[in-house]
Amino acid sequence: MKGNNEIASKVAEYLLQIKAVKLSPQKPFQWSSGLFSPIYCDNRLILSYPSLRTFIRQKFVDIINEHFGKADVIAGVATGGIAHGVLVAQEFGLPFVYVRPEPKKHGLSNAIEGFIEKGQSVIVIEDLISTGGSSLRAIEHLKEADCIIKGMVSIFTYNFKIASDAFKKNKLQVYSLSNFNELIQVALNKEYITELDFNLLKEWQEDPEEWSEKIKNNNASS
Q1: What pLDDT band is residue 108 in, cutting at 50, 70 and 90?
Q2: Is residue 222 part of a domain?
Q3: Which of 62, 89, 106, 170 has the greatest number of beta carbons closer than 10 A?
Q4: Of 35, 23, 39, residue with least CA distance to 210
């Protein structure tokens, strides 16, 4: 998952400033999966800040122009990638669709909402990449519709190896505006976190499940 260090640092700082990313390694959050995590990311908050929203859109546009060129359609991954995808599509004057990780359970059972044709080239907009699973499911739906995937851009990635390996296996080019490693370094430099917090965050990134299990065990014994 490639990116630009200067932009990554700037985006990371913005995310910390508006509290789109919250870091709490000593009092971790619990995800819906049950896993404990020292980080909580809610990029929907970006939409409430017009100047930042515009900045993110423009950086997406810059990456697309530099690495992919113009596509026929912009696709957002539901739900976090929808609004940002619309902004990018509007900037290019292109059609927009959004893709569900799973088809609806009712109605037409659509996985893709909007009009798209076979053979059209698509650039996919994602807000957050963790394991890469939901992103790749969206890509698969587009491939099933006989679309040509030019690549994916995201706002933020946790830099999990499982995601980069999966993208490489699927020959998917992914560019992220910012990433976990850059963010925790910025957080340390700006004194959002301590050195101890920094080390705990690095431990979590290396093995989230083992880290979470330690937290569960500590909670059970306390």
Answers
A1: low
A2: no
A3: 89
A4: 35
Separation CA 35–CA 216 (nearest Å): 9
Beta bridge partners of residue 176, listed in sequence order: 154
Q: Would the pLDDT of 2 be above 70?
A: no
pLDDT per position as a tens digit, 160-205: 999 999 999 999 999 999 999 999 999 999 999 999 999 999 999 9
Q: Which domain holds residue 49?
A: 5-214
d(CA 126, CA 76): 6
- How long, in residues, is the chain? 222
Which CATH number characterizes residue 105's domain? Answer: 3.40.50.2020
Q: Does 203 reside within a domain?
A: yes
Answer yes or no: is 221 within a domain.
Answer: no
The pair phi, psi for residue 175, each rounded to 5°, is: -120, 130
